[in-house]
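Review box. Two proteins, two foldings.
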Amino acid sequence: MTVANDGGRHLFVRHPSNPIVTVDDLPYPANTVFNPGAARVNGDTVLLLRVEDLRGISLLHVARSADGISDWRVDDKPLLAPDPAHPEEVWGCEDPRLVFLPEREEWAITYTAYSNRGPLVALAMTRDFSEVRRLGPVMPPDDKDAALFPRRFDGRWIMIHRPAPLTGPAHIWISYSPDLRHWGDHTVLLEAREGAWWDAGKIGLGPPPLATSAGWLVMYHGAHSTASGPIYRVGLALLDLEHPEVVLRRSDEWVMAPSSSYEVVGDVDKVFFPNGWVLDEAADRLYLYYGAGDSVVGLAVAPFAKLMDYVTHMPLHHHRRSADDGADGRADGRAKISGLLPNR
């Protein structure tokens, strides 16, 4: 494997079989395949692939593999394709994230529905990735990069997402719902930085949040503007387990960035864009599935224990609000982790 040389203590290693999925693996002609959601289901790794067809419209297509690397079995038909009964999808279904909800015994698929009024967050449910039930839009345009947490907090579901303002930077937000349909208490979770930072200007969620003993592990992308166009890199953050609106730690440097040829050149150049990961605790491996150059699917692997050691030593996150500013009077992130995690 080739070790990444772009920060994060060389945590993630690109798989030598990259790209692991291309349009040649699909049962019909297509332009590109990228940005998959990922899950482990009945012994298989399932990827819900974004496929851009030869019209330029995106569909969501299921592929399965026993080892999560090779011999992908691709379904004959898409799981989600634009449906005339759902005008929010008229221009495509894009960038899914997959989360299992034990309370409902089904998988939640949050995806970007591309309407003629702009992209928005939509939600669908499936038990087997063979049949799907749409719940419809949950956020208005422009909004994308969304995923649910797998359980309720104080009776409410929580979703991370990224609305795009008419002016100014695009931050990551968090919202709450009693029923997965009606959402409110919208709050900024993680702000894009300013100036020369790799995550200045626009950030967005990568894979769904992953529960660990130290907190919810979050990977997010930063789209840093340059003279030759944006560069999509990814970094990490850690959220409080019981109060995920509290950011505990955030990486200063990126942990992966486009450097291989299939990431640097594609339909969109210089893009490393992960939507899904699968944790193999027995093997101490975290498998990260990502879109490369908006054209193919790549895989990067990290030793999980080493990754978490890095995460728990990331800088403390400095909140703008004081402990008295919260609606419920909770302490901010710095106060909550004092004495719990190493200070570095």
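Next protein.
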Amino acid sequence: MVDERLASIVRNCRNTTAGHCGGYLEPTATGQPGAYVSTVLLSTGSVNLEQFPGYPFEEDLDQGMAEIVSYDRAERNDAYIGEINMMQASSFSGANGAIWGYDLAVDSRIGKTYPVGRIEGIPIYSLIPLRDATRQLFGVAERPHFPPQKGAMVVCAEKDRTSAVSDGNMWIWCALGFAIAEDRGRSACLFMEDTGLLSLPEDADQTVRQRLDDRLNRIAYAAYLCGENQGATYKKIYIGWKASHVPKNHVGCALTCAPYVTLPSGAFTNISPDTEILELTTDDWLTRVGLSRAEEPDYALKTLTGPNIPVV
């Protein structure tokens, strides 16, 4: 049986374009009453200061330019959200929101993975399937699918961290926890973003993994406490991280965000009625709309992701 709340969102989370997602509340949005789709992504980027004229610098001005470039690269290095006006919001997906990869065009691993932990009895799962589903919606820079329209005003739950100049012993990381409300008509789902730096050498893979897996437990517990604050009960928490080594004389950026978007007509090609998208897997959806799977790009950075996904 189709969930009527989700069916209403699918019918209304639309915009006037054929090939681009739009930002929630943008003029291109056509649906009522303000329906949207939440997506999640984790990305990193870096820039080599040595390529800037005048290096080494006598002041911080050019490092500031490098910080801008590294952030811009993080926007394009995974699921493509380049050239948008990112409007920072708080961190909830409410009654008018659906989740890409979880509610519609569902990643085939959802419901088929073991929990990677528990907090106060709430099972914790890897965020990686939801992150990968976002890449299938937006595509990547070299193979765009339905990315946000260039220059779009896109509301995002967002947090980023930019590094100082690396001495070669630096990792930059981003993480995201996503708590699913038990009663989504009454309570909102919660995004919990986090970013940071680790002073470790390039070959410290195991230490990086251990520290960030440990960090996930604290993020999940913080999400639980936020739910307790609001009287919200969560039935699942999805959580994940990405970390990249920042080479010497580079500036790095880690970006975790959850864009709130509307969908173009092209995202419903060969899907009728529109609510059939609620029953399709991500791969089935790609086949229907005539696209092939977008793989994670080569960052040209040593990059790790976690946690691991034990599949049933």
